[in-house]
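Hi there,

I know you've been waiting on this one. I reran it after we fixed the sequence typo, so this is the corrected version. Both the input and the resulting structure follow.
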Amino acid sequence: MPDNDPQQLRPTTPGEVAETLPDALRHGGRRRIHDADDAMARITTQRLVEHLERSGFVLMRCPPAGAPSVPGGGGPT
């Protein structure tokens, strides 16, 4: 997790969770997992999001990371 100020964390929406989970179910790190297809990932995601909501879970999200800074100002001269 990035070193963000905990005060900047905010609860995620069910839609944000639903957008993120299918990628986690379809990919292992950088490589695609071939034993899980898109339909199964969508079904599993929908059920997980519904379960988390019913169970009262609150997932927190960091603000988006800014663009990385380049020491020395960047481009060729």
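Quick highlight: DSSP finds two helices and four strands in the chain.

Best,
R. S.
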